[in-house]
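Re: beginner question about structure tokens

> Can someone show what the tokenized structure looks like for a real chain? I only ever see the sequence side.

Sure, here's an example I had lying around. Input first:
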Amino acid sequence: LNVTEEKFVLDTLAGCIEYKSLLDVIVNAFFVRDGRYCLISERNFYKALQVSKCCYSRSPGFASRIVKSLDAAKMQKFLRFFFNALYLNTWIKDEWSRFYDSLYVKENWIDPLLRWQPKVQQLIEQLTDKLNNCTTTVKTSAVTQPKEFNLTAPKPRAIPVPLPIPVLGKRLPVPPSTYKPPKETKQLEEIKIKNRRKAEVNQVSYLCDKFFLNSLLVQGTFLTGRDIVFFLPQYLEVVWELVLRQYFEELQIDNIPIKLNAAAILREGALYQRKMEQELKRIENLLRGAGDPSEFLEWQKQMRGKDLEEQLAETECRRLQGKLSREEAVLAHQNVTQENKKKADLMREEKAELMHQYAQKRLQEQQEMRELVEQVVEGHKNAKQAKIKLQKYKQQIVQEVSEENRELLRQALEEEEEKLRKRYELIQQIRAIESLPSLRHKFVDLTETGGHGLICEMSVVELRERLALLREAQKAAEEEKRDQIIHEKRAKEQLLLDTLDQISLFRAELGRAAALKQEEKKRKSQSGERPVKDERILNLQKKIVEKTMERKKQAELL
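And the corresponding structure tokens:
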């Protein structure tokens, strides 16, 4: 390629990438209207064709060679669709105006395309002539007549003796260290989490103490108890905001972003809003003198702990019962194995006896087969004479049938000649009727009505004007609806952003509270005493040991 042709190729590629949205509008409409039978894989071909026609003025010779080397039928159909003046001035202009300014679209794209329309029309005519002049050749070949293979019948195959099934050795179990992480990594992670929680607690307590001292000191003097009660709601609200903001800034790096849909965001925002209202209501009730439910909660927690211990004991009992059942099942399996061995010995003896009987029966059948073959050979000798007599009788029948066929064939030929003569006369009559002159052109005035006498009767021109007015009204309604949808969408997005900010604050605070609660639970679990085992558990453990010893003894005997 020379410099001009290379620049043409680069401009075409850059146009396909830059104006992809505009090209998609034309190509999608073409596939819906005129290109229903075109391949979807040719979309990029039509996009490049649009851009190459726009760059035609820079390198006309090279562009013409590219266009003429492509498929003539596809080129003709697409150029007629793309350079249609009605389409360019109506819906193509409106669709492109959604991406760019309407004045810019008209001056830079619509007007140049309309100016190039005569040249494109000449190219379409050339493609039409090329399609009309091309001829297709149909290759004919002789039909292959299948022939039957002369194959010999295969002999019956003997049943092969089955191979013995190999016995594989028992595999070694997978070591438990394969699926467990090293202890050093776990210890370092626990130390890291513990130090981080301690730093968070110290930071939060420092902020609370600092704000409390600054709020209670007024010109070097402390406030009274009544003033403290009055300023307590404002103090709690400000402390809550400061703690949440500080904690969220520290944990912002560790928060993993999770993409939520609109319904999930609104649902979670409503949940946190209800929790905040409940907390404020609880604080108001405390300020009014309501009782603290901490004692009841502590009692409830102790009772739940007892219930949990009972559930754990019950679970351990069920586990030991399952282990005991397994030992009993192993013993039962060993007993069944011994019985199966005895049955197998009996079956082997019966099988040997049956094989002996089968061999005797087989010898008897072979003897009977030899006698039958001798009888068949004698019968073949007598069948040759009967075959000669039958052949003579068939020849006589064939001669009689051939004479009857000749007579029937002569009658069929006479009937066919009579049908052809009548058909020829009918064709002559039809041609005489078609040769008469007739009026083929009918002149229609689109401004006149049909004359049927109806009140709502109108001409074609009036109908077109009314349809154009209806389209304009429909288009205006669509634009208004589109603006309304965009406004509602923006308002909804702003609401979702605000809700997301609130959710992030609440999540950070709940994470901190959960971490503190977990550490407190660990301390209590470490300081508490281990529960005494239940008597049922001890009895089940003794039974399991006894069954295990019995199973091992029986295995040694086997």
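Each token stands for a local structural state, so reading them left to right follows the chain. Strands lie at 217-218, 221-222.
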